[in-house]
Amino acid sequence: MTVDEIIRTAWKVCDPELNEQGYELVEVEYGRQNGVMILRMFVDKASGGITLDDCTAVSQLLGPVLDARDFIDSEYMLEVSSPGFDRPLRKPEHFVRFAGDPVKVTTHATVGGRSRFSGVLKGYEEDLVLLEVDGEPVSIHIENLKKARLNR
Question: Could you give the dihedral angle defined by the CA atoms of residues 115, 152, 34 and 68, in that order, rounded to the nearest 10 degrees?
């Protein structure tokens, strides 16, 4: 499996399990760090944010789920973390919830000759992430997003 396929499968397998327990899967990363493959899950919850106890509980929940599915061929470590101060934005509801906040966005294909944007998130409509960059409106199709993060 490619890295992208592993990430997509992890989303598909873990998102419903986390939702059942009151957590939200915010982002999934998979890659090598200090010679070790790491599957990193960023999770949140509506009430009060994520604590260390939540990270432990999520890790204990997802470990057996991932082991049962066995879709990652190599050895890896599961790491569970809060989304942090510079929270990643992936889902349409993220772009609605954080409208008005400063963001940094990177695109796959250029938009108006650029692929990096820093501005204010204005919202989300019809598969478009709406930004204001240097006083000008910018619309980016959600499929063109490579990365989007709060810029606090």
Answer: -90
From CA 130, how far away is CA 148, in angstroms rounded?
Answer: 12
Beta carbons within 8 Å of 36's beta carbon, 6+ residues apart: 76, 77
| Whole-angstrom distance, CA of residue 31 vs CA of residue 39 | 7
pLDDT at 44: 93
| Domains, the chain | 3-81 (3.30.300.70), 92-150 (2.30.30.180)
- For the entire predicted model, the pTM comes to 0.81
Torsion over CA of 64, 33, 48 and 96, rounded to 10 degrees?
-100
